[in-house]
Write a structure and sequence with these properties.
Elements lengths: L4 E8 L2 E2 L2 E2 L3 H4 L5 E5 L7 H14 L2 E6 L16 H21 L4 E6 L1 H9 L1 H15 L5 E3 L4 H8 L4 E6 L23 H14 L1 E3 L5 E3 L4 E3 L7 H14 L3 E2 L4
Parallel strand pairs: 1-4, 1-11, 1-12, 4-5, 5-6, 7-8, 8-11
Antiparallel strand pairs: 2-3, 9-10
Helix pairs in contact: 2-3, 3-5, 4-5, 5-6, 7-8
Length: 255
């Protein structure tokens, strides 16, 4: 693919009170989109305000990373939330972040589910529809939704008149079906820096990744996620961006 363009996003603001997980300051100097925790799996008002201010200052797009209400489990525990209640909780989270984005002179520009909700919305039409409804309620307009290609989430978003952005993960293993290998399984997280960089280049230039069983999976990626909660995340993100730029890939937020 000649002269490709790709967005780099990372999960940020994943702290609460005195506890802080992500190196927000360093990552906001590298990524082009920030998935800001909205208080349900991590994040609190002061953290949300600070991250939005930094993002706006550095020209980084602000996105709402919505989740099941699960602070203790970091949003990674499976939950059965009634669709109407889930839609309201999605709208609530987006609205909370929008207050701080506006205070910083910016706006919430997209939505991305987190953890268990993200994975559930790959195959669960009812939960995906609830997320799309929550986005529609909060935004009052066509706010883009990040997710895996072919997911129920993207189907629901399109049905609700919302734009979809195809996302990929350089540091996560893929199944032959194009879904993420569950975190509880061996090899689900790709930790070798050289492999992460190679996969990032493959997504950007070839629009493809190799699954855990050796199959090529074609993915028309527009945004590449680099997790911010892994050791050395900022250094790895910096290297990924440098290698992408050196290979002729333009790194910029999606339109």
């Amino acid at each position: 693919m000649a002269n490709p363009t790709i967005d780099l996003n990372a999960d940020l603001g994943e702290g609460f009170g005195r506890w802080q997980l992500t190196d927000d300051d360093a990552l906001l100097s590298i990524v082009t989109s920030a998935n800001v925790a909205c208080g349900f799996h991590a994040g609190d008002p002061s953290t949300m305000r600070r991250v939005c201010a930094l993002a706006a200052e550095r020209g980084v797009r602000i996105g709402a990373q919505v989740s099941y209400r699960d602070l203790a489990g970091f949003g990674r525990r499976a939950m059965d939330v009634p669709p109407r209640e889930l839609a309201d909780e999605i709208a609530y989270q987006i609205g909370a972040l929008e207050i701080f984005a506006r205070a910083a002179g910016a706006r919430v520009a997209y939505v991305k589910p987190h953890g268990a909700l993200y994975n559930r919305c790959v195959h669960d039409a009812a939960q995906a529809a609830a997320v799309a409804e929550g986005v529609r309620l909060a935004a009052g307009g066509p706010l883009p939704v990040l997710g895996l290609p072919g997911s129920r989430l993207h189907e629901a978003a399109r049905a609700a008149g919302l734009p979809v952005i195809v996302e990929a993960f350089a540091d996560r293993a893929y199944t032959a079906a194009g879904t993420l290998v569950p975190r509880g399984e061996p090899g689900a997280v790709v930790s070798d820096p050289d492999t992460v960089v190679k996969r990032a280049l493959g997504f950007a230039r070839d629009q493809a990744v190799t699954s855990v069983d050796g199959q090529r999976i074609d993915v028309e990626v527009r945004s590449l996620c680099l997790h911010g909660d892994t050791p050395g995340a900022a250094e790895l993100a910096h290297r990924v961006r440098r290698e992408l730029t050196g290979a002729g890939v333009r790194v910029a937020a999606f339109a």
